[in-house]
Amino acid sequence: MSADRASADLTQLEPKSVWTFFDQMTSVPRPSKNEQRIQEHMLGVAESLGFSAKRDEAGNIVISVPASSGCESAPTTVLQGHLDMVCEKNAGVDQDFDIDPIRTVIAKDDEGLQIVRADGTTLGADNGIGVCLALAAASDPDVVHGPLELLFTCDEEEGMTGAKALSPDSFEGRRLINLDSEEDDALYIGCAGGRDTNLAWDFETVSVDSQVECCRVSVSGLRGGHSGGDIHEGRATANRLIVRALLQAAGLQVASINGGSKRNAIAREAAAIVCGPAGTKKALEGAAKTVAAEAAAESFEEGIQIEVSGAGADECKRVMSLGDTSILLAALMAIPHGVMGMHPKIPLLVQTSNNISTIASEDSGDRLHIEVGMLTRSSSDSRKQEALDQIDKIGELAGATVSHDNDYPGWEPNPDSALLRTCSRIYKDLFGEEATVAAIHAGLECGIIGERVGEMDTISFGPRIEGAHSPDEQVWVESVGKIWQYLKAVLAELAKG
Question: What is the pTM (predicted TM-score) of this model?
């Protein structure tokens, strides 16, 4: 192993049952599309608790939990979360997410509140804490509940393929509590849908002239974050900043360009190898300084770094032509990034956005293959299609091959939901104030589950988590306790029938 076992003992935290399950989860690798071990772990947990469990061909797990004594006649409630996590790390952090545990840290925020985070990587509280809240509710003898089904889906973060594989007979319950939200004062009743887009080019390359200057340009120090939940904040993206810097230097030819690593994360780092005429390095240094200062002022991110250094001949043997470089950079600048429209009826809710997620280049000798990955989200099917059409046309004009994948529906809000009425009343009774009822721009699995399974009465809530999909991810301990108290009260009320 390249990393030690989690350094913090999370079992000392309250509620103990929730944190004990989460402490166990941090020791089990669970990157998207490589979830065999966490699935086996969950099947083992179910067996140890005496619950029956099944795993479908996609890897989804359903654990059946008998009702508390006297509550057997209540309708079944489904508690739902996803098993996989986004695997992001800071530069220089030694972490192999396929084999290493997450190294956790117990700390305090600026206000002295206790938080849990990871040591330089994503934590996996998204959605591990939700999964553990469900396990604790099912196993704690003090929790009163009707029949439960724990639905733990797979591959939520990179395609929602687990939810898409569900069918009406996957589980029995038609009342679902999704535990994948990240604000502890909100009840969510809707979310955006989305679709992936790829633009691909195969550019011919030419040998580098011996008189040119070769340079490496790198962008780092950005916050990154969730491409749905954080997109409204205007956070800087490395994939845009590197293009802005390169466009300020004349006569460039690209040897390679790479940025971002996850479809659903705002890119934190990017790098390019380029060459140009004499004076290129000086021009790029000036551009880097200007763009870094502009981006810091635009996004209020103080850690932005754009660095320029010399590149060796072995890094810059062949490059794209001047014309092809111009086409590529123009396309990358033209592709929309960030908020494309706000919801016309729900204040402060982003309706449509696009994230330029990844840029990847691969040298095949006399050609350079470049692929740009994006995720477009919208709560409006027509506006989503409009955004996709815009990206398609940019790609066509730039000579790219355009492809799409992973189209998933949004979750249409139902303000007349019986489950919403119950959950709203209980929240006010417990905490003395109204919960915010809202929709979210991030993608939840609720819409897909409803589409695949049939009509469901669904709500989503969860504890306070910030920085999801980035190494800044952290969850507030007090907030986990609040949602634990709330979930117990909701289940007790639902157990009455």
Answer: 0.84
DSSP element (H, E) containing 239? helix 238-246
Tell me whether the CATH fold assigned to 10-192+411-494 matches the one assigned to 194-408.
Answer: no
- Domain residue extents for the chain: 10-192+411-494, 194-408
User: How do residues 401-426 score in pLDDT, each as one tens digit?
Assistant: 999 999 999 998 999 999 999 999 99
Contact 192, 410 (CB under 8 A): yes
Q: Rounded to whole angstroms, how far apart are CA atoms 13 and 267?
A: 33
Alpha-carbon span 359 to 365, nearest angstrom: 19
**What does the pLDDT look like over 222-242, one tens digit per residue?**
999 999 999 999 999 999 999
CA dihedral 315, 316, 317, 321 (to 10 degrees): 150
Site of tokens 């654990």 = 63
Span 244-277, pLDDT tens digits? 999 999 999 999 999 999 999 999 999 999 999 9
- What's the CA gap between 474 and 129, in Å, rounded? 11
- Considering the segment(s) 194-408 as one domain, its CATH architecture is 2-Layer Sandwich (3.30)
For the annotated catalytic residues, the residue numbers are 84, 156
Instruction: Tell me which of 3.30.2090.10, 1.50.10.20, 3.40.630.10, 3.40.50.1360 is the CATH number of domain 10-192+411-494.
Output: 3.40.630.10
Query: Where does residue 9 rank: exposed (0-12), middle (13-18), buried (19+ CB within 10 A)?
Result: exposed
Give the per-residue pLDDT at 181.
Answer: 96
CA dist 360 and 338 (Å) reads 20
What is the rounded average pLDDT of the residues 26-51? 97
Q: Which two tokens stand for residue 215?
A: 């340079």
Cβ contacts of 257 within 8 Å, gap of 6 or more? 242, 270, 271, 272, 273, 328, 359, 361, 370
